[in-house]
Structures are given as structure tokens and as C-alpha cells.
Design goal:
Largest sheet: 8 strands, mixed
Number of strands: 14
Structural class: alpha/beta
Bound molecules: adenosine monophosphate
Strand order of the largest sheet: 5-4-3-2-1-6-8-7
Length: 396
């Protein structure tokens, strides 16, 4: 089936039009500055990119601009929007209500709205994308694919926080986890690469601008590093990862920050950017560290150290590990980062083959022949997962 995959943010909207069976991408692009002025970048394999300034006061105009360019006789890839069989939407937070993807109907929209307090930045934007598509393509089936859904198999001991239980019961405070579509895709690929054993223990390292690890037993998520929100876990590009809550009280008292300012610091000014003062981008950090910038080196060391700690924790929590997967921008492309993270993990049976590890953005086994634990690089493909879920639900 031909599926339009939509990832709507508050002022941006990414799209990909693809075949859910072959994974072929016919066109993809990005609407930016929605609500400000509006810019569309449209890419078709084998052609020059198209960049257009188009007024986009709301997501409706953005979706309309995407559909217009897709059917444009010169720049487009289809003759009519009827060729779009279904639309798949990435939705950040599905709470505990959504353990899998679902057809968007009134009930689903209500449930996504209910999750707004849990995903206050993303869910309203995701809903704007959904509502715009419903308005413009009322007859086309729409499907919601949740970032949290894959993690809903976590046992209570992994998802409960050690705070009064009433906050879980009354207010839904628990670990949810994110990047679920990516973890689902790469963990399934890893099981396949292991030869589809009946039992498997896999650690997926999604290392990008936002990063998270997951521990997967027999293909199902058993634990993950992000929490109620995507701030938790280990340091990321600009996010702090787990911090001692005492720091909040201390800094808020010292500088008079309110909670919004404090969270802005933890979300936007922390992580490797905060430590280094150089950049949130790992390529910039590599360059700076190579030139002797000690704080850039410290930021990289801290990242590596914390990822190793999570790998160790998940290995013992699962009682072993069969494969470690590296994915997302850093995981797929940083040869050095994979090598440094695996350094010293011989104690749990990990042995990297440095030659094989000399690879970027390809699905490959990079472990040494005698490594007890396989190490895989698996480029993630969240769009394909969304398209596949969308096709299978839209068919029924
Ligand atoms: P993502 O959020 O998955 O797009 O990943 C973005 C991150 O991947 C950024 O921090 C980039 O610096 C990092 N990245 C991309 N390519 C490389 C590379 N060749 N070496 C190191 N980091 C990279």
C-alpha cells in the first residue's frame, strides 16, 4: 500500500510517502515555520530538492501544501491524492491506554487528548496534524502510531517510581519510555539477525540527539531509560538525563528560577551541550576534543560512561545479553563512539571487531567471531514501521 507518514511538531511537519511493502520512499519533505510564515522542502529520489515559501498559518495549510506538491505535474509523484491509501501519524504519548497502533476515530482522538498532560509539547501538535488530514482527506483511513506503545510490556517493577503509589493510581505517574517505534524496529531486526531464536535478550542503544536504551526479552520491552517524559535516562544532546532532584531545589533557590526555567535548562541547555559549552552535535564535540578542548572530551566521556552503566544494568537485570544494537545518528554513524562504548565490555562477553566496525549507516554484525554477545549496527526506520502498521490496520 502507498502510505503517507506524518510527524507533526508544533511549528514543523515531516512527511514521507512510501510503499509499506517494499519500503520504497517516493517522496519526503518538511514543512517549517508553521504559524510564522511557512517553508516547504520537498525531496524526490533522483531529482533536485524543491524549496518553496508557502503561507502556512496553521497545519491545515501545511498538509494542503504537501498534497499539492505531491500531485504537481512536474514536482509531484502521484496523479491524484486518491493514490494515498492511508495516512500514518507519529504520536508521542499514548499513555498506558495504547499498547499498539490504532485506527484514528473519535475514541482514539479523545484518548490522545487525555494524554496531553503527559506529552504537553508534542501531543497537541500531533493532534493538529491528524485534524488537518481528517479535514483535507476525510475518506482516507488514518492511523496513530505511538512512541510509547512498544514499552507497555514493561513489568511493574520496571515502570513504577518509588514515590507514593497514589500518584501512579490517580495521576498515571510511571515510566512510559519513548523512541518505541525505533526500539521495536531494531529489536525485531536484531532477533532476525540472531536467527530467530525462541528466546533472546537484546539491548537497543538508540543514540541520537535524543537518546534512550531499551532492554528487550523475547522481542518485548522489559525496561527502558526514558521515563514519564523524554528527559530521563543518560545525557543527550541538550537534555540532562537523570539528575538528583535536589539539584532543582538548590538551583531554584539560589537563582530564583521557577520550574519552567529550571526545566528549560534541563531540556535545552544541559546534556553534552551543557557540559562542553561547545555544541549538542557529536561531530562538533569530536572536532573540539581532537583539538584539545577538555570539556568537549569530558562531555563525550560522560556520555560513554553513562551508556555503559545502562548496558551493565540491563545485562544484569535480564540475566545476560545476546546482542547489543546501535542505532540512530550516533549509533549508526559514529565508529569511535561504538568502539569506546564497547571498550571494557569484554567482562560481559562483548568483543568488537574493529575492522567490521569501520562502517556507517549499514545493517551489519560488527562483533568479533568469538564474541559471546553479538554487536549489531542497525539503521532505524521508524517511518517504515509506521507505514507497515498503518497498512495492516487500514486493510481491515
Ligand atoms: P539523530 O537525532 O538520530 O538524527 O542523531 C543526531 C546526532 O547524530 C548528532 O549529534 C550528530 O552529531 C550525530 N552524528 C551523525 N553523524 C555522525 C558521525 N558521522 N559521527 C558522529 N556523530 C554523528
Amino acid at each position: 500500500m502507498k502510505i503517507l507518514v506524518i510527524n507533526a511538531g508544533s511549528s514543523s511537519l515531516k512527511y514521507q510517502f512510501m510503499d509499506s511493502d517494499s519500503g520504497e520512499v517516493f517522496a519526503k519533505g518538511l514543512c517549517e515555520r508553521i504559524g510564522i510564515d511557512g517553508k516547504l522542502t520537498h525531496k524526490v529520489p533522483g531529482r533536485d530538492d524543491v524549496k518553496n515559501d508557502i503561507a502556512m498559518p496553521t497545519h491545515n495549510e501545511a498538509i494542503q501544501a504537501v498534497l499539492d506538491i505531491m500531485v504537481d505535474p512536474q514536482k509531484g509523484v502521484i496523479a491524484s491524492t486518491d493514490e494515498i491509501d492511508a495516512v500514518g501519524h507519529r504520536v508521542l504519548h499514548g499513555g498506558a491506554a495504547f499498547t499498539e497502533s490504532c485506527i484514528i476515530d473519535d475514541k482514539c482522538i479523545e484518548a490522545i487528548k487525555k494524554c496531553i498532560p503527559l506529552g504537553p509539547l508534542h501531543n497537541p501538535a500531533n493532534l493538529m496534524g491528524i485534524e488537518a488530514c481528517q479535514k483535507i482527506m476525510p475518506k482516507t483511513p488514518q492511523v496513530a502510531v505511538f512512541d510509547t506503545a512498544f514499552h507497555m510490556t514493561m513489568p511493574p517493577k520496571a515502570y513504577i517510581y518509588a514515590i507514593p503509589y497514589e500518584y501512579y493510581e490517580k495521576d498515571d505517574v510511571r515510566r512510559y519510555g519513548f523512541h518505541g517505534t525505533s526500539h521495536r524496529y531494531v529489536s525485531a531486526r536484531a532477533v532476525d539477525m540472531l536467527g530467530n531464536p525462541a528466546h533472546s535478550k537484546i539491548i537497543c542503544c538508540h543514540l541520537g540527539n535524543g537518546s534512550s536504551l531499551s532492554a528487550c526479552i523475547d522481542g518485548k520491552c522489559a525496561d527502558t531509560s526514558m521515563g514519564l517524559g523524554p528527559l530521563a535516562g543518560f545525557p543527550m544532546g541538550t537534555r540532562s538525563g537523570d539528575v538528583d532532584a535536589t539539584i532543582l531545589e538548590y538551583l531554584m533557590g539560589r537563582y530564583g528560577y521557577d520550574i519552567k526555567e529550571m526545566l528549560n535548562i534541563l531540556n535545552k541547555k544541559s546534556g553534552v551541550l551543557g557540559i562542553s559549552g561547545v555544541s549538542s552535535d557529536f561531530r562538533d564535540l569530536d572536532d573540539a576534543a581532537a583539538k584539545g578542548n577538555e570539556r568537549a572530551q569530558l562531555a563525550l566521556d560522560k556520555f560513554i560512561y553513562e551508556v555503559k552503566k545502562f548496558i551493565g544494568a540491563y545485562t544484569t537485570a535480564m540475566g545476560g545479553v545476546d546482542a547489543i544494537v546501535f542505532t540512530a545518528g550516533i549509533g549508526e554513524n559514529s565508529i569511535d563512539m561504538r568502539e569506546k562504548i564497547c571498550e571494557g565490555l569484554e567482562c560481559i562477553g562483548v568483543k568488537l571487531d574493529k575492522e567490521k566496525n569501520n562502517v556507517r549507516g549499514k545493517e551489519v554484525d560488527v562483533s568479533a567471531a568469538d564474541s559471546k554477545v553479538k554487536v549489531f549496527v542497525i539503521p532505524t526506520n521508524e517511518e517504515l514501521m509506521i507505514a507497515m502498521d498503518t497498512a495492516s490496520l487500514a486493510k481491515n
